Amino acid sequence: MDQEEMLSDTVRKNLQDLRRYVDNQDASSANRCLAELLKKIRPLHVQEIQRLIDKAKAAAKVIEDQDVILLIGETGTGKSTTIQFLAGCQMEKKKVEVENGRFLEHVEAVEPIKNPELRRIISSPRNKSETRYITPVTVPLRDIFGSHETGEFIICDAPGFGDTAGPEVDIANGVGVIEAIRGCKSVKILALSSYKSLGDRGQGIQKLTHLLINMMRDIEDRLGSIFYGFTKYPSSSDISALLIDVKISKVDTDPLLRSDSAFVAVLTDMINKTKVGVEKIDPLSGDPKRTIERLKQVRGIMYPRDVFQFSMSENTQACIASQKSCSCEALLEQCEDIE
Questions:
Q1: Which tens digit of pLDDT belongs to each residue from 137-186?
Q2: Which SUPFAM superfamilies does the entry link to (predicted)?
Q3: Among positive and negative, which fits the CA dihedral 207, 212, 218, 222?
Q4: pLDDT for the residue numbered 331
């Protein structure tokens, strides 16, 4: 096959655009075009994957043989903000400028932040993950309940599985994060659902349940170790009713979903637990003591090495396939013509 024919139409267009930008001495557009081209000829940044896995290995040493709480949720559910709140930070709502004259509201911790480990927890108003590897934070109970309280708990921030940060984070997540968690003594899951990601037919709930299912074996036997938290929901919303509606309108009418016993089990568990008591996490006016007290009652998953498993999103699998089939030599020859 002719090398030119091996290039996709989109890549050829990139090369044509690049020639034009170089001829016009448009450096900014040329740099942007080169970045797009690099993404096509190198779908996976292997060095970045290794860097993130190394970061996860460092975190694994901190949480080895420890009892931990692991936050699970999609990007934008407020995992990092929730950790700051549960660690006793004072929170406030600010307007953050995302571009000239355009602002987004964002809830963030107020200085001074007493716990130095919280400096590594970064939250963002944008729908983009700032967390690229597992980050454990040790929280002394005295920071929450007062000086009379002893002991501590470890809570772990992690990127969302199948995260918007890209396949590199997804692979490092699957390898590094899971391996770190498997070395713990026990693991409690704090699974977050955000009102913003709920969707008109409960798509956010479906994604959350599948995140949990994909990362744990025999999840039906682990439901007692999962605690559900709900962020950014209106105070008047009946979350249990919303979940029941998802089951009736989406699951009960879809034979494929209805036959997915693990999915039905997790959704039913969410419904049953929210009937007893919903945990709406409100960093601005809520009380972290309540959430922590309820988390204390959750039994952790023992022997996590036997439970947690590697998984990756379909997009990441496609990137791996592209990495294998990419013809870099043909592209390099085309690029030489631009010099």
A1: 999 999 999 989 999 999 998 876 554 556 777 777 677 788 889 999 99
A2: P-loop containing nucleoside triphosphate hydrolases (SSF52540)
A3: negative
A4: 40
Q: For residues 24 and 131, state if they share a domain.
A: no
Tokens 């050829």, residue located = 12
Q: Give per-residue pLDDT as tens, 29-42.
A: 888 877 777 666 65
Among candidate residues 104, 253, 106, 280, the one with its CA nearest the CA of residue 192: 280
Which residues are registered as beta bridge partners of 190? 71, 227
The answer to whether 162 touches 315, Cβ cutoff 8 Å, is yes
How many domains in the chain? 2
For residue 115, which of 152, 160, 150 has the smallest C-alpha distance?
A: 152
Do 18 and 105 belong to one domain? no
Identify the sign of the CA torsion 216, 219, 224, 230.
positive
Token duo for residue 277: 């008591």
The residues pairing with 97 across neighbouring beta strands, listed in sequence order, are: 103
Cα 248 to the chain's mean position, in Å?
28
Q: Which amino acid is at 267?
A: L
Tokens matching residue 170? 């997804």
Task: Tell the burial category of 194 from Cβ atoms under 10 Å away from its Cβ (0-12, 13-18, 19+).
Answer: buried
Say if residue 242 is in the same domain as residue 296.
yes
C-alpha span between 244 and 218 (Å, rounded): 23
Residue 92 covered by a domain: yes
12 and 75 inside one domain: no
E runs forming strands in 23-101 = 67-72, 91-99
Whether 19 is in a domain gets the answer: yes
3-state secondary structure of 193: strand
Three-state DSSP class for residue 177: helix
In angstroms, the CA 239 to CA 233 distance is 8
32 & 111 share domain: no
Q: What's the sign of the alpha-carbon dihedral 65, 109, 81, 224? A: positive
Among candidate residues 330, 313, 331, the one with its CA nearest the CA of residue 321: 313
Residues 14 and 114 in one domain: no
